[in-house]
Specification:
Belongs to the precorrin methyltransferase family. Helix content is 31%, strand content 21%. The chain has 258 residues and is an alpha/beta fold. β4 and β5 form a beta hairpin.
């Protein structure tokens, strides 16, 4: 005689921030989920060191995105998360940085809730904070920056947006995903009133062993990115704090050399 029919269990989707790359910067909860997960759906920006933390036998599904080259469209990613959860699987959706800062975590959470799938969000250190800390660039400073703004360098209607006032005196501007559009970004900011000599830093591969911090004026941003062959992941930080941190680090280096 067959036993009573048991309803299938719905799994939970965990939207997990992997931080800027260094495994030491994961939250404890993120690390536990990564090490215990049976299914990890991950972005291309998640570092190999963090992916190596997955347990043996875990199913790893890459949904890496690059400019004009997406392994899987966002609608398909949403559908994948819902389908796996409805099949009874707990899913770790692993994202570089933080899921809710330019990570499309909001869209994925909405899709799961609409399908009746439980969602939990595990925040990560966003790349803006990780990169600035690794480069010793304070995004805010009592003497030179009381406002900080995050913007996406790749978005719909970029050229039509008004960026006036986002950077300048007492302000820091952090641009995500701006490498491919560096020339348009510099042109837009100067057209909106920002001085060509405004200092900036480009931070590539933040917190990783191959990290680079490149500095220059706003007008030279396109040449800096192209000449140094900057590649993603990279962040652009614009404002006086970048010049001040450069001076401080130079002083520290001189002192250490003596």
């Amino acid at each position: 005689m067959q036993g009573p029919h048991l309803e299938s269990r719905t799994g939970t989707v965990h939207l997990v921030g992997a931080g800027p790359g260094d495994p030491d910067l994961l939250t404890l909860r993120a690390a536990r989920l990564i090490m215990s997960a049976g299914l990890i759906v991950h972005d291309g920006l998640v570092s190999p060191e963090i992916m190596a933390m997955a347990r043996a036998g875990a199913r790893l599904v890459s949904v890496a995105k690059a400019r004009s080259n997406h392994t899987m469209k966002q609608d398909a990613i949403n559908a994948l998360l819902v389908r796996e959860a409805l099949a009874g699987h707990d899913v770790v959706r692993l994202k570089g940085g933080d899921p809710f800062i330019f990570g499309r975590g909001g869209e994925e959470a909405e899709a799961c809730r609409a399908a009746g799938v439980p969602v939990q969000v595990v925040p990560g250190i966003t790349s803006a904070l990780g990169a600035s800390a690794a480069a010793q660039i304070p995004l805010t400073h009592r003497d030179s920056a009381s406002i900080v703004t995050f913007v996406a360098g790749q978005c719909k209607g970029l050229t039509e947006q008004d960026w006036a006032g986002l950077a300048g005196k007492d302000r820091t501007l952090v641009i995500f995903m701006g490498v491919a559009t560096a020339a348009q970004i510099a042109e837009k900011l100067m057209a909106d009133g920002l001085a060509p000599e405004t200092p900036l830093a480009v931070i590539e591969n933040a917190t990783r062993s191959e990290m680079r911090v490149l500095r220059g004026p706003l007008a030279g941003l396109p040449d800096l990115v192209q000449g140094q062959r900057v590649r993603s992941p990279a962040l652009i930080v614009i404002g006086q704090v970048t010049a001040e941190s450069d001076t401080a680090l130079h002083a520290i280096a001189l002192e250490a050399a003596q």
